[in-house]
Q: What sequence folds into this?
């Protein structure tokens, strides 16, 4: 296999560790903090996790290592969607493990959690792991979305661990994956298996975040990748001066990606799903808001612009959310077969119009035909609309065009409106990690082994003070149960890690809010360019604008 020059150079990059982890394993000690409690529903969470609830947060410091020395056989799992830097978590874990005892073993379970259940694995060695240092993707062992949640699965996992002499499992994943890690940790401790479970915070969506977890890994690289592309489009847009570009970006449940990309590129429009929900904005009001920008810019001779649309924004529009709920109910059970048996769209439309409420039918009727039909594509495993399949960028450009056509009829607008559409998603999930993500992920993996070495179970690997140089980062751990609350899932109360949404009173949104009116009318585009891996630290080691604003370090 021929390697690119960049790939060769990235193999040789040595990730930076927090200062307290740099002096060798033998000089790292633990400082215990306060006991913790869950973010909500404390009694219920405590009852579900009697063996792992309420543990103390810990910080690693320089000092004499007091952990018990023993051979460690550690299993590692990549869970969920890809995020840049996942390979470096495994590399950091491997290096710390081998630095402690060359006889320690790291086992990678293939294709996600199912690899643990099916005992499908490989044993890492130097030659194999060196091929993946500082690279993007999850192809080192593959990933999967199998949930570990049943007693039968836990029994099998326990037997697999016993077979290999495994002392700990590290699960690298998002909120659902780390919820599963917490449940597995509780089971292992309740049944005295001797197996520890440690989680690592991953998701490009940025919604695994709280007062302890400043940033999930992959968010930095993904948003920089999208922002490079958006900046390129802005430059083209400002050159051709004849298109409005509607760009959908990842973010089903939260708009952190859209907000960060807006802060980096200063587009004319950026929708924030959380604001849409808070203001109970309708499809028509959103279209009118975008159309106002189109008209204002057109009057200045600028018949072009850029609008960023979060992937899941339509779910936050109250009337659209109601429509989806009614469609889900309408096609429940055997009714879906009755609908699918209809041969033409006209027959299906009649079926729909007879079953939706008057209010929801009014919303459905204004949707473009392709969007109407997308609402009836293949359902998810629970029989619900797959909102991620809805081309919301095309939906809003069509609604804006209809709004502008009406303004033309009334003599309020005489400009030109030509729309182009983009969706940036997979482009950012497996990019070469930025220096920040390469360093952060390596530190998370290295730190995860320290948690194992000191006997912690049900903890999340935690590295904080991330807006400062890596030397000043702080490594430690927090009980996963601290992040949990009870939510209703599929008709049952379930313990889950609370997703972090964009805070409308937070500094990143407030900065955006203070500037967006100017951006909507003027051309204020900024061009971040490609991620830089070599050069001055102020160029190569930048954190996200979001983190810089939150921590007050934006220059």
A:
């Amino acid at each position: 296999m021929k390697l690119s020059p960049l790939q060769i150079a990235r193999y040789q990059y040595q990730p930076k560790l927090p200062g307290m982890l740099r002096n060798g394993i033998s000089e790292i000690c633990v400082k215990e903090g306060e006991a913790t409690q869950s973010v909500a529903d404390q009694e219920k969470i405590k009852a579900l996790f009697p063996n792992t609830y309420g543990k103390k947060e810990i910080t690693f410091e320089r000092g004499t290592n007091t952990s018990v020395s023993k051979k460690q056989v550690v299993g590692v799992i990549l869970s969920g969607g890809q995020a840049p830097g996942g390979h470096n978590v495994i590399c950091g874990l491997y290096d710390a493990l081998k630095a402690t005892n060359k006889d320690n073993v790291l086992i990678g379970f293939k294709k996600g959690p199912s690899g643990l259940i099916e005992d499908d694995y490989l044993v890492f060695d130097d030659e194999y792991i060196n091929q993946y240092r500082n690279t993007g993707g999850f192809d080192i062992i593959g990933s999967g979305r199998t949930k570990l949640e049943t007693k039968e699965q836990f029994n099998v996992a326990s037997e697999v661990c016993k077979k290999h002499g495994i002392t700990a499992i590290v699960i690298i994943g998002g909120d659902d994956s780390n919820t599963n890690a917490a449940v597995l940790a509780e089971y292992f401790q309740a049944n005295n298996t001797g197996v520890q479970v440690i989680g690592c915070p991953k998701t490009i969506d940025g919604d695994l975040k709280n007062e302890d977890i400043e940033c999930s890994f992959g968010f930095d690289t993904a948003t920089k990748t999208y922002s490079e592309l958006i900046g390129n489009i802005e430059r083209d847009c400002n050159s051709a001066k004849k298109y409005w570009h509607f760009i959908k970006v990842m973010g089903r449940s939260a708009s952190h990606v859209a907000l960060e990309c807006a802060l980096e590129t200063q587009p004319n429009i950026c929708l924030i799903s959380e604001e849409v929900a808070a203001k109970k904005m309708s499809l028509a009001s959103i279209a009118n808001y975008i159309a106002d920008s189109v008209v204002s810019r057109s009057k200045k001779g600028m018949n072009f612009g850029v609008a960023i649309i979060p992937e899941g924004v339509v779910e936050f529009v109250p009337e659209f959310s109601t429509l989806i709920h009614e469609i889900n109910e309408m096609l429940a059970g055997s009714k879906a077969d009755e609908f699918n048996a209809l041969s033409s769209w006209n027959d299906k439309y009649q079926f729909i119009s007879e079953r939706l409420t008057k209010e929801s039918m009014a919303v459905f009727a204004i949707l473009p035909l392709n969007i109407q039909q997308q609402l009836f594509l293949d359902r998810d495993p629970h029989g619900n609309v797959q909102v991620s399949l809805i081309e919301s960028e095309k939906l809003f450009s069509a609604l804006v065009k209809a709004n502008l056509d009406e303004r033309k009829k009334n003599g309020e607008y005489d400009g030109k409106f030509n729309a182009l559409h983009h969706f940036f998603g997979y482009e950012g999930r497996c990019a070469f990690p930025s220096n920040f993500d390469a360093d952060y992920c390596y530190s998370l993996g290295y730190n995860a082994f320290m948690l194992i070495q000191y006997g912690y179970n049900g903890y999340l690997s935690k590295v904080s003070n991330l807006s400062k140089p890596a030397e000043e980062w702080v490594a430690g751990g927090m009980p996963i149960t601290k992040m949990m609350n009870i939510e209703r899932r599929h008709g049952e109360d379930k313990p889950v890690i609370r997703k972090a949404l964009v805070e409308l009173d937070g500094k990143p949104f407030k900065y955006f809010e203070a500037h967006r009116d100017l951006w909507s009318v003027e051309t204020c585009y900024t061009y971040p360019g490609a991620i830089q891996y070599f050069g001055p630290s102020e160029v190569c080691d930048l954190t996200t604008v979001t983190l810089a604003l939150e921590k007050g370090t934006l220059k």
User: Anything to note?
Assistant: The chain has 22 helices and 15 strands. The first strand starts at residue 28 and ends at 35. The chain has a mean pLDDT of 94.
